[in-house]
From TrEMBL:
Residues 1-24 form the signal peptide. It comes from Luteimonas granuli. Residues 101-128 are annotated as: Disordered. Residues 101-110 have a biased composition (Low complexity). The keyword Signal applies. Residues 34-110 form the DUF4398 domain. InterPro entries: DUF4398. This is DUF4398 domain-containing protein. The keyword Signal applies. Keywords: Signal. Pfam families: DUF4398 (PF14346).
Length: 128
């Protein structure tokens, strides 16, 4: 008689499926240490960009997400830790961008005021 998988009992198929799924579950992603490190660096960059002054809500969101990511990592919830670390990085990057925008707008307003002042001194207020 020839050997065929058709002759295996159904419970052996089920056991094989359970084993395959268990092995696939073991092949998970590595811990999100790189994501946590990137989030910490992004928060530090946002701090250095004066985001506390110009984008405090975004910076607070980044810090909160980073704290939660660290707590989830400590609890062994790597998937949640990874997602929160990525949220923290994105929020910190947004805070940095908004801070840079606010600083650029303030510099622009200052330069325009200087130009207006110089035009008044020179008596050329009407020129573009």
């Amino acid at each position: 008689m020839r050997f065929s998988f058709a002759h295996f009992p159904a419970r052996l198929y089920g056991a094989g499926l359970v084993t395959a799924l268990a092995l696939a579950g073991c092949a998970s992603l590595p811990p999100p240490t790189a994501e946590l490190s990137a989030a910490q660096q992004a928060v530090a960059r946002a701090d250095a960009a004066d985001a506390q002054q110009y984008a405090p809500r975004d910076l607070d969101r980044a810090r909160t997400a980073l704290s939660r990511a660290q707590a989830e990592m400590a609890a062994g919830n790597e998937r949640d830790a990874r997602a929160l670390a990525e949220l923290s990085s994105a929020s910190a990057d947004l805070a940095s961008a908004r801070s840079a925008q606010a600083q650029a707008e303030a510099t622009l307003a200052q330069r325009r005021a200087e130009v207006t002042s110089l035009r008044r001194r020179l008596g050329t207020e009407d020129l573009p």
